[in-house]
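Subject: Protein record for review, amino acid sequence with backbone structure tokens
How to read it: Take the token row as a discrete description of the fold.
Enclosed: The protein record, placed directly beneath this head.
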Amino acid sequence: MVEITLEYRNFPGKTTGFFLLYSPFIAYCIFVISKLLDSDYFTNPGIEHLLLLGLGMGMAALLIIPLGLILDRTRRGRPLLVVSTLVPSLMGASFSLQGYPIAQSPTMETAFILALFSGLASALVSWGVTLNQTVVVKFRGRIVAAFLSTSLLLFIGFMLFETSLESFGLPLLEFIVIISVFASLMLKPWKMSLHPLAVKANALRYFIPMVLLLASHITWYFSTKMAIRSLFDLVGDPYQSLVQEAAAEIGGLPFFGVLQLLFVVAGIIIAGTIADLRGRKTAFSTAVLAFGLLAIFGQTFYYVAFPGTPAATVEVIALPLLGWERFVEGYILGLCLLLVWTELGSPNRKGLRLSFIIWFYIGYMALFWAADLGVPFGNPPDWVGEIGGPFAIFFSLLALWQNAHLPEILGREIEIEDFALDFDQKMVDKTVSAFLQDEDFESIKTQLAVIDATEELSDKEFNEFLGNDLKKILPLKRVKGVGPSLERMLRKAGYDSAAQLAGETPQRLASKIKGLSEKQAERILLNAREAVSRLTKK
């Protein structure tokens, strides 16, 4: 059986394709949630959309922690990912084909929403854990960015072409999700080898500044919203939301409420790229800086022009303000939702840690939507608008102070459970296959490190040894089991000395020499290493 192993040097394109094929499901979930927020998903007048939204989030919050525990114990992230996406998609397709409203509509619609939110929470946890087990840290940020940005772009497409898709009379959105899941199975994910990758560090080091950053976000958002509303009341003009003001600035562009998500996509992509190239700590520091600047200078984008005169008007430079806000939100989403938490701490509790983070985000979004929609306790009190701005700056400064204690992740990740000092042949083969390619072997003159023979050589002797022509002092014919015919084939394959042969792996050697089995290749490599060892001990 051929396994898809970890790729350390090149971007893992095939593995990335597997993870991206679950973007349509995330886009579908965002589409349904947005419709629930607008009370525009079910045609049954007896359905209370916001109540269903609350029930769905409650179900996700109840299931997310047990799902993380189950995932850590069973390590069945890939099957769980498939089931989590297929079940709600099949339910949605089935209900859509039956039509609305029907006698069982309230029960069926409630069951569908509960399944959708449960599937979304389960899919995010299993997706994040599986990514951590199959992709090394230096590529993971860009894959997360591609996954989330693709999901949002598909959501934009679903919104723009909603009427056209519904005209077919078929549940095309659900079919797209189902087809993408089956396409992911065509990549044979069960052959992907899982690795316990992690960095020994406390995840609370990142969690505390993230909480401060979100506290800064929510206080800034509502203080800005209430400040702009009070300015409109001050001059007697009708109040418009920041999205409406931004659309008005560019001539009332249609679908601006959807197109603003492009700023979110930009933030996600930049966050993932910086996280991979510069490290998670630098990326998080950049997020704190960007939001801190927004909290400090955001109020310069709205003011009363000509105060105290009959011509007094409210001036809101809404487009750059909204774009900055959405960009920072996307940046935080791309960095803090799926990327950091499976990379820190014990590899045996990845699912549980990520579950707690998603559970926290569920609570944060529930609080944010409840305050924004004014349910169930009405709008935030007036004092939020008065002191929210300074507190947003204060929380940003605290998060910036906490950044000094953030652990580095890039370059520190190891396979904790397999790490040992007594490397056996299997470990050597695995390491060489992961890090070295064919062109590297030309520069490898000896593999003395793996045969533990250099301790008896002085520096002068070692330099003299490497300076000699290894083809003369250690030819291929010195290796037991290498006859004239095999020697010719080895030279034709690019091997000039026994020292060069000692650095090869049985699988690669067998693939280059016709008629040579892996078992025979392994014996030859062991003999080559013994020959190098004998020579150095002389």
